[in-house]
Design the sequence.
């Protein structure tokens, strides 16, 4: 019953995380577009009111005019009816952390720990997980504070820091666990930017406006800086969110480097859209991102398996599957923590094995399966399955 309830928690939290993530990313992308698309106000009177820029838009059968007041309106009161964009960020982070806890902390032995990487206890793995997320924010925030106004240097150091964390996490956790922790670290930075800087800075500015005091523009500048960082983190985080469905990425021997290339491609593609909002169309940016991904696809292409030598019997393959795989991939799994077979894949009959032969060969050869190598499959057994598939994956001898 406990495993069944955890599966429901996983499903509902994942759904909630997706919904709130769409709301946050949608709002973030919209305001980045708005900020970079502003034109000088057409009415001189708007300039005297404190309007920095405006954007006319058409959507949903209506016309809209958005105006930006960097330090609030001049000569008129600030509206009491202010919309704050914050709960989208908080809800996304809270649902994501809850999902991390359900899948990777409660299920640390299966999803977070890989004894071949480091033989951690579940408690130690969870402790390292929490420490990494907290330390990531502390280091990032320090760099932003220390290098305010030196965006080029800060971006370079931040990239080096994230790459270093990516590599270090791959020395501690399973490849899948390492990937998700890079994403969780970036997501924590994004949410903390909203909680510690963007919203408090905006509140201070509102208080100054309402008190009739001179408005300090620095909180707005800091908020703008952190919002820009968040928009560049978005595509890498989204890739990491879906990567757990594609073990060819994180299970590669150089999975940490695969993630670096994919994150860099995401940043280049996002930069194209940011500049396009400003009227600067630089096609080399998405072209470079696509070229990086294409190069990665070529370099990661699996090498053909030698099908020569003695014929691999299906009986031998079936024995390996029975010992190493069907504890999870059965109608009624016997492996602790699994109420149902992962992704609905059952490998009990010859027909079922034949149906999933290609995926079996791919995931076993990559090292992704069995999860955390809970059942102790050997390299020789992995090679046996690869040769069986190369020889035609027959399910009869």
Sequence:
């Amino acid at each position: 019953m406990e495993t069944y309830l955890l599966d429901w928690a996983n499903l509902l939290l994942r759904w909630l995380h997706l919904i709130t993530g769409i709301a946050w990313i949608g709002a973030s992308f919209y305001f980045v577009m708005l900020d970079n698309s502003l034109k000088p106000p057409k009415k001189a009177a708007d300039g005297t009111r404190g309007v920095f820029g405006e954007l006319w838009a058409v959507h949903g059968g209506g016309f809209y005019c958005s105006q930006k007041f960097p330090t609030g309106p001049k000569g008129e009161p600030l509206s009491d009816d202010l919309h704050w964009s914050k709960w989208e960020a908080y809800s996304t982070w809270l649902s994501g952390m809850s999902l991390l806890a359900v899948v990777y902390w409660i299920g640390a032995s299966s999803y977070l720990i890989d004894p071949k990487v480091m033989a951690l206890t579940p408690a130690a793995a969870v402790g390292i997980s929490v420490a990494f997320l907290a330390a990531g924010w502390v280091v990032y925030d320090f760099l932003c504070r220390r290098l305010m106004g030196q965006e080029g240097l800060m971006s370079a150091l931040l990239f080096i820091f994230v790459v270093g964390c990516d590599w270090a996490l791959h020395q501690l956790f399973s490849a899948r666990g390492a990937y998700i922790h890079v994403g969780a670290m970036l997501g924590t930075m994004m949410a903390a930017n909203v909680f510690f800087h963007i919203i408090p800075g905006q509140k201070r500015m509102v208080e100054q406006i309402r008190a009739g005091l001179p408005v300090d523009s620095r909180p707005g500048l800091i908020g703008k800086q952190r919002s820009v960082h968040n928009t560049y983190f978005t595509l890498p985080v989204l890739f990491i969110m879906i990567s757990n469905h594609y073990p060819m990425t994180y299970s590669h021997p150089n999975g940490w480097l695969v993630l670096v290339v994919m994150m860099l491609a995401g940043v280049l593609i996002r930069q194209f859209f940011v500049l396009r909002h400003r009227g600067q169309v630089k096609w080399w940016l998405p072209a470079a991102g696509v070229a990086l991904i294409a190069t990665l696809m070529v370099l990661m292409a699996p090498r053909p398996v030698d099908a020569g030598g003695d014929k691999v019997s299906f009986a031998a393959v079936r024995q390996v599957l029975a010992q190493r795989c069907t504890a999870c991939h059965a109608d009624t799994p016997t492996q602790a923590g699994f109420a149902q077979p992962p992704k609905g894949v059952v490998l009990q009959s010859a027909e079922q094995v034949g149906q999933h032969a290609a995926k079996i060969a791919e995931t076993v050869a990559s090292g992704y399966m069995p999860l955390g190598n809970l059942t102790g499959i050997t390299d020789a057994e992995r090679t046996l399955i690869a040769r069986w598939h190369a020889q035609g994956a027959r399910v009869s001898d």
